Amino acid sequence: MSFPILSSLIALPIVGAVLLLFVRGVDEEQTARLARQVALIVSVLVFFETLLLWARFNPASADFQFVERHAWIPAFGISYAIGVDGISLFLLVLTAFLTPIALLSSWESVHKQMKAFCMFVLLLESAMMGVFVSLDLFLFYIFWDAMLVPMYFLIGIWGYDRRIYAAIKFMLYTMAGSVLMLLAILGLAILHYNATGSYSFDLLKIYALNVPRPVQFWFFLAFALAFAIKVPLFPFHTWLPDAHVEAPTAGSVILAGVLLKMGTYGLLRFAFPLFPQAAEFFAPALAVLAVVGIIYGALVAMVQPDMKKLVAYSSVSHLGFVVLGLAAMNTQGVQGAVYQMLNHGVSTGGLFLIVGMLSDRRHTRLIAEFGGLKKVMPHLVAAFLLVTLSSIGLPGLNGFVGEFLILLGAFRWDPRFAAFAASGVILSATYMLWMFQRVNYGTVTNEKNASLPDLRPREWVVIVPIIAVAILMGVLPNLFLAPIEPSVEKLLNQFHQSSTTRIEASVDPVTGHQSPPTSEAAR
Amino acid sequence: MTPGALNAIVPMACVAAAGIAAMVAEAFREPGERMPIAGLGVVGLLGAAISTVVLWNHNTSSFGLVSADNFGLFVTMILVIIGLLTLAISGPTIERERLPAGEYYALTLFAIAGMMLMATATDLLVIFLALEVLSLAVYVLTGLRRDSPVASEAAFKYFLLGAFSSAFFLYGVAFTYGVTGSTHLDRIGSVIAAGAAHETMMQRLAAGLLMVGFAFKVSAVPFHMWTPDAYEGAPSSVTGFMSTGVKAAAFAAFVRVFLSAFEPMRADWGAVLWVVAAATMVLGTVVGVVQSNVKRMLAYSSIAHAGYLLVALLSANDLGKGAVLFYLLTYAVTNLGAFGVIGLLESGVQSPATSQPSATSQQPPHDQVRDYAGLWYSHPVLAGLMTVFLLSLGGFPPMAGFIAKWYVFSAAMKSGNSGLAIIGVLTSVVSVFFYLRIVVMMYMTEGGRPTVFPSVPKVAGLALVVSAILIFYLGILPARVLDWAAQSIGTIF
Q: Can you say whether the dihedral through the CA atoms of A307, A308, A313, A314 is positive or negative?
């Protein structure tokens, strides 16, 4: 048996966190220094492991690779089943990429309990890895829920003024969504029991299960609610601005970079393929919410006086694109959605880092407090510009490819959605550039800005990889899209096959006409 | 009498013997002499544990009244664990409240013996007897702080309502005897099953009265009124003990009576229990949210947990019966851990604000939610342990509480009670809110005046760590214990 690389991705951060328990310096300061060094080394190791995984990943195959399967609770058919395919591969890489950056970004901004901070970041990393590799619904749910706890502590302990409110809101919203999903998961296992005589939570077995149509609707709603809150899809987004604004920089980076992707990943991996008929039926509704989110998020972002809040609302808008691409359920749309998940992680992560740097220097994030920074900190502003452009979707940078593919997919599905969504592209340019202009151009109006230090060496290390990846993903999209494509194709084939065959097999003749014929043809 | 006829009562005999030994030891103790009375209890409980393991799978029975089947033995084992943990965490409470140690331990052990009898009894009269044995001991334990008005009030309330419920139960037994001509569960079951077609009012009355009796003991709504007061007034370790032990014993008997003897009438009592379970879950969590005293909060949490257990009981399929057992075990370990921490913190003394340095003994117990502010910064380990217990109560993976709740909800879904399952998961989200209030205090709020805690006794500390390890074990590798739970219910139902 070969080296269990995926398990090690989950285990290594936990080992690191346990190691941290025993790190003890002569005084507070030394402990903190040692702790963050250990944490950084561990997270960098994990990152190299994911690169190794990428290198050994067979891009031509659509199947799950590096699969590990062990019985866990055999009486209930629960197994420790993990594996990776093209869809999850880069999400793992992204997670491992952002974690060390998040740690580095809090090198100086975290002033208390550094050790615990590093532990929670590592535990969070482990849970996120677990979510993306789980091939067993029970295991998935465990990681999904377990991830809440470290994030809750990160926001609640190291956040800004209203951190307790934000942390509890984050926790309760996410839980309220996910508990109903738990019941739906149980329901699926029981359906499997009724069909075959044994329980199973194995995703691949449950894919093959023929879920009755009315049941599909309820279960799809339960899954979709959990994921929609996580994404967050309009109108379930209200926890996000609070959580983002109050979280420490590292928390925001991970929250925006990875956690939100769990929602869209969940839709793609679980909600759509498990309940194809319901997904088919609800796809237009999802798309409407997504488009509303795109425009609403952009408009609200435009009027924010606080940079962090602006970036938070821009996430609502950008994630709307991802959901739209998924709802289209065609190759371009889904590929674009997967790509856009990565883009958003990189560019919004970058934006939060930059905002964090500014806020570390000035202890405020209000746009009005800044102005004319270009003359004071040319390097930081240059980085800011690149990240902003990548977030807007300038051709040549990463954001463009994803948005383009999504709009293409949406257009092929239903041009109306594409038309409305495209306005989001323009709006995003408006609010981002306007913010950028107010912060960086003009004369220095506020005395306090006159002598701010430019990028420090540590900050160079933080921001350069982000920009490099943004450019790489913009220039060589195929490097990433090639491994994604086979898995997406397979998933779509499976989806369309099962949604159509099941419709034919269904007794009720009405069900065949649930979706408009134009969309059928477009697929 | 054939050899081995007494085998089934060996576990409770061990514990009762230890209780008697504790009483004798206390009587012969010189004033001021320190005696390891708790050690006697440990010996007795270990004896019970060993005999439980030996009896496992043998399905022995004594006098036709006590049956050491796997179900009863599983609960007995839970009770042994409850007993050991209780003994271990009692030290600080006894010290602080200056409780009479000998009486405390003796009563605890007698209560455990009664609980074990209740879990294994197969005759309604013996169940009643066991109920009284454990209840009387627990009433006294509740009021053991003789000079405290709060404790006296709690004990009095508990006693009055408890006596009331015992009367209900006894009345139920009488009706059952009137209807079926027997108090033995098997016999009752077969008579009721034979006449299932034409149920009489008397049968319903009998089942209803018994249910009221049990509902009192497990603190189900609307018979929960005594719970918050009793839990708040009793010394912390006693609260931990009765919230877990009494519940385990009462649920064991509840399951036995209603899922074997009264099983044929399930259509009748099922509907009632549905409402009771839903109300219990909702009231426990909703009222828990507004509590400011930690013990009171956990009292409401305990009511809510009784609701989840009722859901499992109501589901009554193979999953549900196993779920009751697993849930009881998990809840016992978790809640005792939490009360262990509370007991330790109760002795905390806020450093005097201005003068009155001698006022320390008059200080109120340190058990308000706000007293936990900043605990993490001063006592990271205790805060960490408390967090594990609270998160497990809230049902977070990878803690045991998650697996337990998941088991209960699977049972509910499988039996078609998805309505209850939905209420259950939603109330558990609400309950997370109040568990988190304590967490927020510990981690995210700066403490006011620094608080001085006496150092943690080694035994109590060890018990808390063992509880935490058990919680993770049951949460991450539950397969073996789940198998045992499944085996236990196979033997009798």
A: positive
Which one, of B437, B454, B435, B444, lies nearest residue B377 by Cα? Answer: B444
Question: Which residue in the block uniquely carries the two structure tokens 């999903």?
Answer: A181
pLDDT, tens only, B160-219: 999 989 999 999 999 999 888 888 988 888 888 887 666 778 888 999 999 999 999 999
ipTM, interface predicted TM-score of the complex: 0.89
CB contact under 8 A, B440 and A189: no
Q: What residues does A70 pair with on adjacent strands?
A: A80
pLDDT digits (tens, 9 = 90+) for A164-211: 888 888 888 888 888 889 989 988 888 888 888 888 888 888 888 888
Listed range (A107-116, A155-164, A277-286, B241-250) with the worst mean pLDDT: A107-116
CA B48 to chain centre: 18
Task: Specify if A403 maps to a domain.
Answer: yes
Instruction: Nearest by CB to B425, from A72, A73, A182: name it.
Output: A182
Task: Report the half-sphere exposure of B392 (CA within 13 A, side-chain side).
Answer: 33
| Interface test with chain A among B443, B472, B474, by most A beta carbons within 10 Å | B443
- Give the other-Cβ count within 10 Å of B63's Cβ: 14
* Token couple for A447: 């005395």
Count: domains in chain B: 1
Instruction: Encode B363-394: b = buried (16+ Cβ within 10 Å), e = exposed.
Output: eebbbbbebbbbbbbbbeebbbbbbbbbbbbb
**Could you tell me how many residues make up chain A?**
523
Q: Which domain holds residue B194?
A: 7-349+366-490
Chain A interface test: which of B413, B434, B442 (most A C-beta within 10 Å):
B413
Q: Considering the domain boundaries, does residue B172 fall inside one?
A: yes
The count of domains in chain A is 1
Smallest CA-to-CA distance from B13 within B51, B70, B59, B67 is with: B51
Query: Taking the mean position of all CA atoms in its chain, how far away is CA B87?
Result: 15
CB contact under 8 A, B410 and A186: yes
Residue B176 tokens, joined: 């059952």
Mean pLDDT of the residues in chain B: 87
Tell me, yes or no, whether B354 lies in a domain: no
- Set of chain B residues whose Cβ sits within 8 Å of the Cβ of A175: 429, 432
Question: Is position A307 within any domain?
Answer: yes
Residue B130 lies in a domain: yes
Interface test with B, best of A80, A149, A173, A201 (most B CBs within 10 A): A149
**Is B426 part of a structural domain of the chain?**
yes
Query: Which of B397, B426, B445 minimises the CB distance to A146?
Result: B397
Q: Per-residue pLDDT tens for B72-110?
A: 999 999 999 999 999 999 888 888 888 888 889 999 999
> Number of CB pairs < 8 Å for A and B?
80
> A168 and B434 in contact (C-beta within 8 Å)?
no
User: Could you tell me the pLDDT band of residue A503, with boundaries at 50, 70 and 90?
Assistant: very low
Token pair for residue A122? 């590592």
Say what the pLDDT of residue B2 is.
Answer: 66
Strands A78-84 and B60-62 turn out to be: unpaired
Contact between B244 and B335 under an 8 Å Cβ cutoff? The reply is: yes
Tokens 């049972």, located at residue: B411
CA distance readout (Å), B37 to A477, B144, B455: 74, 17, 22
Q: Are B297 and B372 in contact (CB under 8 A)?
A: no
Judge whether B465 is closer than 8 Å to chain A, CB to CB. Answer: no
Which domain does A294 fall in, by range?
275-523
